[in-house]
Amino acid sequence: MTATGLRSRLDPVIATTAAEIDRWSAQKDAGYRTVAQLVGDKTSDNPKQTRTDARIRRWIDDFPKFTQAWTAGDLTTSHLEHIRRSVHNSRTRAALIADQAKFITWATDFDFIDFIDFEHICIYWKNAVDPDGAEPKEQTTKNYFRAREQGDGSGKLDGHLDPLMFAAFKTAFNCEDQKLFRQNHDNTVFNNAVFNNAPFAWLQADHTHPHSRGGPTRVHNGKMRCGPDNQAKGNRTAA
Known about the structure:
The chain has 239 residues and is mainly alpha-helical. The chain folds into four domains: 1-62; 73-140; 145-182, no CATH class; 184-239, no CATH class. The protein contains twelve helices and four strands, in the order H-H-H-H-H-H-H-H-H-E-E-H-H-E-E-H. The protein has helices at 3-23, 26-29, 35-43, 47-59, 64-72, 77-87, 93-98, 100-108, 115-129, 163-182, 188-194, 227-233; strands spanning 144-149, 155-160, 203-207, 222-226. The strands form two sheets. Strands 1-2 form a two-stranded antiparallel ribbon. It has a two-stranded antiparallel sheet with strand order 3-4. Helix 1 packs across helix 4, helix 3 (35-43) crosses helix 4 (47-59) and helix 6 (77-87) runs parallel beside helix 9. The chain is elongated, with a radius of gyration of 33 Å. The model is unreliable at 184-191 (pLDDT under 50).
């Protein structure tokens, strides 16, 4: 077995050992800040390589075929680290789990001249699975929406929505708005609206006893009016 092959077999062992040491915080009991420092001091191994092995060990749990190939020495840490950093993301994850065997084949069965050939195949695969890639941060609108209830039962809204989200929100709000007034035919507010000839979009909920004079925002104190009538009434008590 070559030195490279021997190292490929040792990497999973080192990674598993490092993970167990870290799990029990044994490095701190031995006076070391990190697992890599402990392993490097006790084995003369490169701490950077130990950190890489530990990262791979934590990442590989969801990829059983990769784990088996790594343990068998068919996949090296370099293969897995390249896949983890350059291929795996939230958009390619499901496809990568399904195509583990392909990557193992590409790493073991092809007569590559050097590692660059494997990197090229990874690029081709990623372009096929994730052709659009991630949207640039400057083109990604941050959507947020907050709704806070005030002490008097009213609500305060705050937020920013992109055009698509705003259109969806507006449609949903309008549907719920109409549903509230039509869900119960015995509702006083609904019955008032039935006998109002104005289009629904023009209607406003008016306080029979003005809110500015202490009138509550409740169904029994409400009446549907068209916008102009409501504005003309002002804060006078409705007849």
